[in-house]
């Protein structure tokens, strides 16, 4: 289903682009070289001429390179064409954040257990394992310690280089004040500071094997059982002609592909980085098990705390949440539209500035105001549960202060902007797919915005859910105050609420979450299928499949 927009033709503009060519070594060198340039520029100061260099030269240059890679290069595999272009789009948005609007030296800082801050990090910018590895300090439990800001390293040092490297590649902000809220399964072994690398690698490899088997089964569904729907060719079966069972199966097949494409790359990179950290003795977030928690929460957490707010705030991967918040919620919503500032800061502590920085004029690293963490929310949507998820949701301290209608409308507008930006960033990949598979057809704006509808309807469901939850919890607190009291011997998970009520709430919330996602997923499922993200025709390379061979007798699809 396409977004009903005026038929704005894009073909006259797109026709002026250079012809597509398959990605070659020069393109890969250009991409990685640009990433290296970003790290080097972040190593320099962010004041004076250096700040102008970031803003006026480096930012346009890097945006131009990534734009070229999106619009002028072609990947051999269709799904990669979409995924890599979407990733490049997120890189462009992060350049807008770091180089133009929100310099990281003023808005980002690492967070370390207090006991690790006093021993100055080694000259290479990494905490030495001999000094910081919790296995050598058995009485200490660093995960239970208070996290405090780490001083930002001086510019033009190896420590600042590593700081910049971690800043850019820590997409989820693990170990930083920009971190996304983590689900409970992400805060236990083997993803905490006491976890061993061997155990971590074993668990990750086991997950990868399971991931492969599940992903391979649904790949067989897409390319064999439902091949006519996923062909991406004219005359393919439209979504409206599918049975309810086929809709559910095909939607699951698309979600599984998205899910495991992210998980598999995450697992591979985590194992490589953790092994490197073990060899070199590095314990920072990029090179230790605690810096690589699972991308997604599990179904058990969604059952325990059901709802779209939990899904989007705690169990989803959160790769883009930082730039979506600062550019959408803060930048457009509050700074441009002038809407009231709302949102919870994760770590509002201002990071300490080393004397060498505050006294230095030559390097230009001074930043006296340094409002780090002031614009980092625990979640960009106010409809999400208060972090951490309270085991007594009806207790007086958990009931929200009533929000005025005006603020609710403003938050809905900012949520809409945030999700709209997310949809547009995903449709950068849609444009790349169209250029590859439909370049010689007439292309209109509505053809490109195929995935955005899925995202822009989510804020309305979140607002509806928040309204229901607020009224229901308020009613329970007023009419049954004893339900919120701690119950001895039961862990007090839901106070004294009757067991049947807890089960009913979870069941209703779970059904609501998946019914809504299943209904709105049609935009995403039909969009990616018709764009050709899963095409296997036209001489495309075939891959060996276990389930395709066992069930359908096709060993290569």
TrEMBL record:
Residues 114-148, 350-398 are annotated as: Disordered. It comes from the Eukaryota. The keyword Transmembrane helix applies. GO terms for biological process: lipid metabolic process. The chain crosses the membrane at residues 28-45, 52-70, 82-102, 258-282. Residues 360-378 have a biased composition (Low complexity). Residues 379-394 have a biased composition (Pro residues). Residues 127-144 have a biased composition (Basic and acidic residues). Keywords: Membrane, Transmembrane, Transmembrane helix. One of its GO terms (molecular function) is O-acyltransferase activity. InterPro entries: Wax_synthase. PANTHER family: LONG-CHAIN-ALCOHOL O-FATTY-ACYLTRANSFERASE 3-RELATED (PTHR31595), OS04G0481900 PROTEIN (PTHR31595:SF57). This is Wax synthase domain-containing protein.
